[in-house]
Write a structure and sequence with these properties.
The protein has 341 residues and is α/β, with parallel strands linked by helices. Helices cover 43% and strands 15% of the residues.
């Protein structure tokens, strides 16, 4: 006759404690539940001797916790996203949490579906880098702040803040960083600085464009509206950027931009390549400042705004666990200090 498999109930009866005490100890809750350390050690030792492991699903039902944290990122293949994941992963390891990662592919409809799918499968919290609509093509998906408010789950928005969001967030100082970068171009002799950006309804992009405008105002430089190049699609095959740059480079010399500020890393390389091909100066590109940084083995010659994405990821995860352990904790908005330009 086979020996009955051990259960939490059988261990509890053998050691003379309650089943809930065994459950708390094996679930890592002994200290928080103020269970006597000697009792906790006896339970752990006996469970080890018996080769007992709690049933995952039963434990999740008992504790109403799965140990899983959902992550929704616009594009998991972007370099800055992987940097953020590194910071998050460091904190998750300390909390023995499982990461469940999905990509919204910069589509707000898919973002909403991913969030609902993660909640259906059971997660204890959510870290999200919100995607954004193009201002010229808003979707009918409700604002993310409204969707998240209805879910009643600890959430941290990282890198950018959705419209109307008053909950936890961790972002960098986009506006100040942008102003510093443009002022550096001006200090190097630029008179007419153009700005190239995607026309996204995102707090990060709005902050960077505002910082560009702050620098022009502070340094008393012209702010010709023709120099603000806003793109309404992410498509490397589109001629939109090429056409806009060509038009600006065709202006009279005293109206033509003599330096460029680009709000995102990928767009900066595309802008630089087009300027190299189209610039009347031949193979000598005009000065460019941008958010992002070159790989260690390559130098593009652009001024880089180094972004603290590892730190943003780490702080986002730490803030989420604080919220999970104290549901009454007030919402916090963390702005990471300006990075080196």
């Amino acid at each position: 006759m086979s020996k009955a498999k051990p259960t939490m109930k059988s261990i509890a009866e053998e050691l003379g404690v309650s089943r809930s005490t065994v459950s708390f100890v094996l679930g890592g809750e002994a200290e928080r539940r103020r269970i006597n350390s000697e009792t906790a050690q006896r339970i752990l030792q006996r469970a080890k001797e018996l080769g007992f492991r709690p049933n995952y699903f039963a434990q999740a039902l008992n504790n109403r916790k799965t140990g899983a944290i959902g992550l929704v990122f616009p594009d998991v293949h972007e370099i800055y996203m992987s940097q953020m994941l590194r910071g998050i992963d460091e904190v998750f390891a300390d909390h023995d949490a499982t990461m469940v990662l999905s990509s919204s592919r910069m589509d707000r409809v898919l973002e909403k579906r991913n969030i609902e799918s993660l909640l259906y499968r059971g997660i204890d919290g959510l870290i999200i880098v919100p995607c954004a609509d193009f201002n010229s093509r808003p979707t009918e998906v409700p604002e993310l702040a409204i969707l998240l408010k209805e879910k009643h789950i600890p959430v941290v928005c990282a890198d950018r803040i959705p419209n109307g969001w008053l909950g936890n967030s961790v972002v960098q100082d986009d506006r100040t960083n942008a102003q510093l970068a443009v002022e550096l171009l001006i200090d190097q002799g630029a008179e007419r600085v153009a700005c190239v950006s995607f026309d996204l309804n995102a707090s990060s992009i709005r902050g960077r464009i505002a910082g560009y405008q702050d620098a022009l105002k502070t340094r008393r430089r012209s702010a010709d509206p023709r120099w603000l190049v806003l793109l309404d699609r992410v498509d490397a095959k589109s001629q939109d950027l090429s056409d806009r740059l060509k038009a600006l480079l065709s202006l009279p010399v005293n109206e033509r931009p003599d330096a460029w500020f680009v709000t995102t890393e990928g767009l900066s390389y595309r802008t630089r390549d087009l300027l190299l091909r189209q610039s009347p100066l031949g193979n000598h590109p005009l000065p460019i400042a941008r958010f992002g940084a070159d790989p260690s083995h390559y130098s593009s010659g652009m001024i880089s705004v180094y972004q603290p994405h590892v730190e943003i990821g780490r702080l986002s995860a730490e803030l989420l666990f604080k919220q999970m352990h104290d549901q009454n904790l007030c919402s916090t908005q963390i702005v990471v200090a300006s990075s080196k330009v």
